[in-house]
Amino acid sequence: MSEKREELMNEITKWQTKISEDEIFLELAFFKVFVKFENFLTDIIIDYATGAVSNPSKVERRLNFVDREHFKRTTSLNYLDTSEKTRTLVDQLFIDDNKISFFFNSSDNEFFEKMKALRNYIAHESFESRNKYIKKTLNNREFIAPNDFLKSKNRGDRDSMYTKFVNIVVTYAVSIDFD
User: Fold this and answer.
1) Residue 11 near residue 48, CB atoms below 8 Å
2) Which of 13, 120, 148, 159 has the least C-beta neighbours within 10 A?
3) pTM for the whole structure
4) pLDDT of 134-152, one tens digit each?
């Protein structure tokens, strides 16, 4: 397990403990894990792009960057997230059918985009982010507090939205990680 994935897993474990003691931490836990996953994704993409990985065979590069600074200067990007912009960049940087593109092309990415709208609402609590949360995440249904949404389950699902989110994060972190 890479150091970056270990940090992500430690973050998940830390918040699982707090949530089990008091569900009031659910919203904060979600936010912190989401941000940690995006940081993990940024680091992994840059590490693959620069060849700074112990198992480069998981992702073949089309372009080679010397180091992080070369990557940042060439792409003009310091931070990557789960957006379409990052998906396009990944498709340009790496040979098709790689582990990172698999995340962006999976059905789970749609769920992740809905969770990003929730994350943005939690972070900003603006009128615009609230409307996007209602539209994208709640599918235009009546507003419910983020903590309540994260505790909720879709019909027929065994897991809460938070648990589903964490399971997706763990699955893709393991798949994408180079160790």
Assistant:
1) no
2) 13
3) 0.92
4) 999 999 999 999 999 999 9
CA distances from 129 to 9, 53, 57, 77 (A): 28, 37, 39, 23
Q: 110 is in which domain, residue-wise? A: 3-176
Q: How many CB atoms are located within 10 Å of the residue 138 CB?
A: 16
Q: Name the helix (H) or strand (E) containing 40.
A: helix 26-50
Top mean pLDDT of 41-45, 57-61, 86-90, 134-138 is at 134-138
C-alpha angle 88-92-95 in degrees, rounded to nearest 5: 120
Task: Please state the domain count of the chain.
Answer: 1
User: Rounded CA gap, 29 and 13, in Å?
Assistant: 10
Structure tokens at 107: 């059905």
Average pLDDT over every residue of 70-87? 84
